[in-house]
Design brief:
about 45% helix, six-stranded mixed sheet, 19 helices, alpha+beta
Length: about 675
């Protein structure tokens, strides 16, 4: 034993061998830097992701607003332009000289031409005003129709007659004289005898072309007009799209524009994804579309995101370097200094005073423990350690008067799951924190606390389920305390047996619920707590109806099965904070803390319904019964346990008197016991 002890102490007092099996190249400096840099990088990734998402959303929202604004401006202009022409057409269609221009003589026709000239002069976008009549005549300024010209077969006449009494806006066409694009706005007119003819205004599209060309939020923006059939009527870029259907160029495009307005995206062959906003005009079936290349919108967004990522990466690197310097000054250098001092002490050299760099309490404690260990103290304690190790099977730990660990046995290591190297230096932070971490929180503050060594033994509950009895005794030499002996005894079996006996004394043997004595004590505590916090509290008495019939008919074994079934039903449907007890025979009691009477009524009604509708199995039979429930509701005013039970018992008695299988609630502050009754 002495030889083993010398070897054990020798291993604890010498430095690690140069040829240690540890071959890792990681250093504290590098590990702290990498960990710090990793944490900063993780934070940077989260920040960059959130910033990038914000930049993207803001950029896309801004682009959509710009496209939408341009489109609405164009739509307002086009609609106003068409509304002005439509108003002129409506006025001319209601003018008698125009309506009867084919039959009222030359003077009336001249006045009609005068109206036409006035419209042409007042609106620079109007190129022609004319009227066609049911008899085949054409009334127009400055134009002589060729022989055989019949307005009734012209598209503007046919469309207006078919749409009458509504106005029609025709398809754009080129003027045969100067090839200028025009659009005809026509309206049929009539008199008492019926349809008389059609008046029409041909307007140039040059102003609309200019508007579509000039209003652009992006260089790639294109503004164009399509009708309800998808035909492209006007386009600010005459690139062959005119007179084509948009569905032929972009399949399914018209399906995207069923609403009156909206934002869409589509793939334009040869160009890529286009972002567009469209508006359907109220005056006709035209749709105004403004579209831009998505790549042009995304270019500045990508630039801002790239700048954000670069700046964040640079800041992360700088913070990592600053963190490394701070760690070196505060942690790495003290560790290196401590390492050098430990090497000096284990080699027998004088370590001198601790440098200021060792300002950490744990490091300073370790250094002090190492410097205070001497061969004389080891020899002085050798006899004591041998006696301790040979005479007990408990876990033992011997400390000197400076809290340095001088001896311990294998049982101590086993109980606390330690190794020799853990306790080699002394009662260090490593040992203390390891031991504290192994016990339940309520025991952590008192285990291995030197300032409480003089008190009696205490129980320590380990997380593994083991219960230790911890005690400390002083080691005396010439009347002076030279150290302490700590002992740890495994008393798990003893404590568990005592706990089992206490549990059996507190619970009902059949159901496992609290018995009457313990339940009454719990009720008194709950009343005090509810009164102090001014919280509601309900006491429930539940009695099985006609329970004697079950015992008489099927025997007491069936009655026991019914009571177990009732207990399981109650515990499974109540909160963990509720208290359930069997207070005698088939009578059960429940405490519902912080619960008002209406909530209690609802909860117990559900339980009553479950029991009434449920079945329990006894042998090959399925049996059922009902319960009567009385609830006493306490609302702040303190009463005794007996008074509380008296109110609940009266409520339960009334439930039985009213026919059983029901719930009755009584308030404890009612003026008379027969008031404040609620029935379900």
């Amino acid at each position: 034993m002495i030889t083993h002890l010398k070897q054990l102490l020798s291993r604890r007092s010498t430095a690690p061998a140069p040829d240690s099996t540890y071959s890792g190249r990681q250093t504290i400096r590098r590990e702290m830097f990498l960990i710090g840099l990793f944490c900063l990088a993780a934070i940077a990734v989260v920040v960059v992701s959130m910033q990038s998402m914000g930049i993207y959303r803001a950029g896309m929202d801004s682009a959509r607003e710009r496209i939408t604004g341009a489109n609405r401006q164009i739509s307002s202009y086009v609609e106003a332009h068409l509304e002005g022409l439509a108003a002129a057409v409506r006025i001319m269609a209601a003018t008698p000289d125009v309506v009867h221009g084919d039959t009222s003589g030359e003077e009336s026709r001249e006045r009609a031409r005068t109206y036409f000239r006035f419209v042409e002069l007042s609106n620079p976008n109007v190129k022609y005003c004319y009227a066609g009549y049911a008899g085949g005549e054409l009334l127009i300024n400055g134009y002589i129709p060729p022989d055989g010209y019949d307005p009734r077969v012209r598209p503007w006449y046919v469309a207006a007659v078919e749409s009458w009494p509504k106005m029609t806006i025709g398809l754009p066409y080129r003027d045969i004289v100067d090839q200028e694009w025009l659009v005809a706005i026509s309206s049929a007119f009539s008199d008492a005898n019926g349809l008389r003819g059609v008046v029409s205004v041909d307007s140039t599209l040059s102003s609309m072309d200019g508007m579509l060309n000039n209003i652009k939020s992006f260089s790639s923006q294109s503004n164009f007009v399509v009708n309800a059939g998808g035909q492209i009527l006007i386009h600010n870029n005459e690139n062959g799209y005119l007179d084509h259907k948009i569905g032929d160029i972009v399949p399914g495009a018209m399906e995207l524009m069923k609403a009156d307005t909206g934002y869409i995206e589509y793939d334009l062959p040869g160009t890529g994804i286009r972002m567009a906003y469209f508006t359907r005009l109220n005056i006709n079936d035209w749709i105004i579309i403004s579209a831009v290349d998505r790549d042009e919108v995304m270019a500045p967004i990508r630039g801002r995101i790239a700048l954000t990522v670069s700046a964040t990466a640079l800041v992360t690197l700088l913070l990592g370097l600053l963190q490394l310097k701070a760690y070196e000054w505060r942690f790495v250098e003290p560790f290196m200094t401590l390492k050098r001092r430990i090497a000096d002490i284990t080699a027998g050299r004088e370590a001198g005073r601790k440098p200021p760099s060792i300002s950490n309490a744990e490091l300073a404690s370790i250094a002090d423990s190492i410097e205070g260990m001497t061969q004389s103290s080891l020899r002085r304690k050798a006899t004591e350690l041998r006696l301790i190790l040979e005479t007990t099977s408990d876990g033992l730990l011997v400390l000197d008067d400076q809290d340095r660990i001088t001896h311990y046995n294998q049982r101590f290591l086993e109980l606390w799951n330690l190794r020799d190297e853990h306790v080699g230096g002394g009662l260090s932070a490593l040992v203390i924190e390891h031991v504290r971490g192994a016990v339940l929180p309520e025991s952590a503050d008192s285990v291995l606390e030197t300032r409480h060594k003089d008190r009696d033994s205490q129980l320590i509950h380990l997380k593994t389920g083991i219960i230790l009895e911890q005690s400390a005794r002083p080691l005396l030499e010439d009347g002076s305390v030279t150290g302490w002996l700590w002992s740890f005894k495994d008393v798990t079996i003893k404590i568990m047996a005592e706990e089992k006996l206490r549990l059996l004394a507190a619970t009902d043997e059949l159901t496992g619920l609290w018995n009457r004595r313990c339940f009454m004590g719990r009720a008194e505590a709950e009343i005090t707590e509810a009164t102090r916090l001014r919280q509601p509290l309900c006491l429930v008495l539940l009695d099985a109806d006609h329970f004697k019939r079950i015992n008489d008919t099927y025997g007491h074994a069936a009655g026991d099965a019914a009571l177990k079934y009732l207990a399981n039903t109650l515990t499974s449907r109540l909160r963990s904070s509720d208290t359930v007890g069997r207070i005698g025979g088939e009578e059960f009691a429940i405490l519902l803390p912080n619960t008002g009477q209406e909530t209690a009524r609802a909860v117990l009604e559900k339980i009553r319904t479950v029991i009434a509708q449920g079945r329990f199995t006894f042998g090959d039979k399925e049996l059922a019964f009902t319960v009567s429930i009385g609830i006493a509701a306490l609302q702040g005013a303190k009463i005794s346990v007996d008074e509380f039970f008296s109110v609940a018992d009266a409520a339960c008695y009334q439930a039985k008197a009213l026919g059983r299988n029901r719930t009755v609630v009584r308030a404890c502050d009612s003026p008379r016991p027969d008031e404040a009754v609620s029935r379900q």
